[in-house]
Amino acid sequence: MREKKVVLPVLDINEVDKRFQNLNQHAKILHDRLVQLGMVYINFTISKSILKEPLFNLRNSIIYRYNSILFHLKLLIIIHNNHVKQINYNKSDNQIKLIMLNGRERELSIFDSIIFHIISLFDYIGNLLDYVCCGKKQMRLKWNGVVKKARNQNDIITQYSVSETILKYDKELIDKLYKYRSNIIHYKMHLGSVTSSLDFKTGKQDNNSFCSFKIHKKYQ
């Protein structure tokens, strides 16, 4: 029996500039909240080397990682637009096919880097939650560690409303990203696909590139 082909909807992003404005706004909010957390911490410590405290190192790491995600997203858009320009410039079908195949690999490598940065960011956030909410002033749990604690109704972290937020976003997003990252690290890469079609009436050629089936299916 032949396996039924699964056709997924196109998940594209419109108004890219507007999306980046929104991400930059969130970056500012994140930065301001982390600075506020640092000020609260200063009020409760008498350390003479306050900027060397683990909390401040972690705060700076979170800001760096988030900015790295934004940088790689912008880089992905630039590389993709450059490939589109090359395709539009060339008339040779063989050359267009080569550009699309090479472009797919380059864009996927940036996409994978974004996934790695996101996972690292949430591990940092897990360590921050460990430090703030778990009562031992340590930074060891990472994201999966705080998820396990949030599922334990007897754990101290469940006294905070953030425990519900942890479980919600882990189920909707973060656990899927962890599994995808684990798969491409330990088993195999997941290349996306490229398609090209020609309208014989208008002479217009339509070229598209898609992310891998696995990541597409998870977020359809």
Number of domains: 1
Distance between the termini: 26 Å
Average pLDDT, to the nearest integer? 79
List SSEs in N-to-C order: HHHHHEEH
Number of strands: 2
Instruction: Supply the helix-strand structural class.
Output: mainly alpha
Low-confidence stretches: 1-11
What does this structure look like?
This protein has a two-stranded antiparallel ribbon. It has one domain (19-189). The longest helix is centred in the middle third of the chain and has 41 residues, at 93-133. Helix 3 (93-133) crosses helix 5. The protein is mainly α. Helices cover 66% and strands 5% of the residues. The relative contact order is 0.10.
Give a quick rundown of the structure:
With 220 residues, this protein is mainly α.
List the main descriptive attributes of the protein structure presented here.
220 residues; elongated
Q: Secondary-structure map with pairings?
A:
Blueprint lengths: L15 H28 L10 H36 L3 H41 L8 H10 L10 H25 L6 E6 L6 E6 L2 H6 L2
Antiparallel strand pairs: 1-2
